[in-house]
## 1
Amino acid sequence: MAFAVRSVDKALLNFQSFLSVSQKTEKVIWEKADTKVAIFFINDIEFQLCESLKDNGRFSEWIEKYGEGLHHICYEVDDIKKVLEHAEKHNARLRKCDACNVYGSHPHPEGFVAFLDDEVAGTEIEFMQVYTEEELKKYKVTGV
Ligand SMILES: [Zn+2]
């Protein structure tokens, strides 16, 4: 699950102080998306703290509207096409990936991703089909 935060440094410090998240947690920059991110696990759930590095970034715009908080939940799936077909059959709306300007399934660094609009309890849904070894070689360079 991904949280939109104003400051990754500050938010991470709170997770480390209150929830014993590892002091070794690294912060990375996603260049194409102009986003600074800290990634860590609590139990088996991956947490991402996301800070836009520009004012009109995906997360800073979201914070302007809603304040800091849960931005989206990513579900790892085995077959993204099947999952999207199922969701669309039930009238789900796809959301554009702002970084890539694409609707529906498309390659990102770790796998194929697609976004649904915020119809599920007001939270954006991301699906990810993690690459096989072969797909990883093919798509790794082209993603966000
Ligand atoms: Zn994308």
## 2
Amino acid sequence: MDSTILQDIKQRYTIVGNCDALNRALDVALQVAPTDLSVLIIGESGVGKEVIPRIIHDSSIRKRAKYFAINCGSIPEGTIDSELFGHEKGSFTGAVGESVGYFGAADKGTLFLDEVGELPLATQARLLRVLETGEYIRVGGTDVRKTDVRIIAATNVNLTRAISEGRFREDLYYRLNTIPIQIPPLRERGNDIILLFRLFAMLIAKQLRMERIQLTDEAKDILLEYKWPGNVRQLKNITEQISVISQERIITPEILRQFIPEDEESHSLTRISTGNHSYESEREMLYKMLFDMKTSLSDMHRQMRGMQDRLEVIQRTGQVAASHNTLSAQNTDADYAEEI
Ligand SMILES: Nc1ncnc2c1ncn2[C@@H]1O[C@H](COP(=O)(O)OP(=O)(O)OP(=O)(O)O)[C@@H](O)[C@H]1O
Ligand SMILES: [Mg+2]
């Protein structure tokens, strides 16, 4: 794929990063967009899956038709069938009118089924049918209806494991997974971590009209080595926290360490329960964990007190962080292009 097309997409959707795996994912998204193939987006929580279906829809012939993003994990089991496939009047208590459901409403358009692994088995059966035949029946109805919907699904759970545990239909998995798009975890993206930090630092600085925070070289190394279990979402949260809470604008490893939790591994209970170890070392490790937790809690209290102070400043002056050099509003989009 022409790299200027990729650059253009990144600019348009505010996607930052240049690692091969991310470029490959975007490349596949653009290649598959004009087709009607089902796409399954796979990646850990917080890696940035949600923008991909939007890119596919916007680059497809369906772009002028409806696009719906549905979080399958957030709809209660009792109502999900009726939300997706609609219902007839009086089909259940409270069904005063009829409903077309997402499959009716998205005809000729695209449906993004986020957290598809959370769908109940009965709904999976209905979904498989509509994917294979384009046909579905509303809840409480008998008429077979037709729809023309492109499905894009996403998951942050291991669907193969869900299949072996009987929680996900294998046939549906193969049907959804025609084209898999793998979004890499942040820890595998190298210098993209620093670029993303700069993006989030710049956006929050602009939003709150404060000076942008910057990393020392040693602080960059810490970000590059950290495992980022919460991926880009975690990096964004931490960058925003530091921007708002820290009094300093040059961020050193000492400051960074107050905001970055120790790597999961060093807290992992599984490490305690495996390998050769004495009772004493287990007890020591548990003490250390408790101590760390206590330290994190007092850090949190301290940070919350800091935030409260800041909120008071906001309320009093209508501006955040009066102590920082405020940037004038001329921090324009040109800065963004230059920075990233
Ligand atoms: N490459 C990127 N450039 C800029 N922002 C990004 C990038 N990747 C992710 N983000 C941002 O990170 C946050 C998390 O991304 P998103 O919500 O898409 O995660 P997700 O993969 O859907 O996670 P989950 O499985 O938990 O739903 C969002 O605010 C998103 O805008
Ligand atoms: Mg998501």
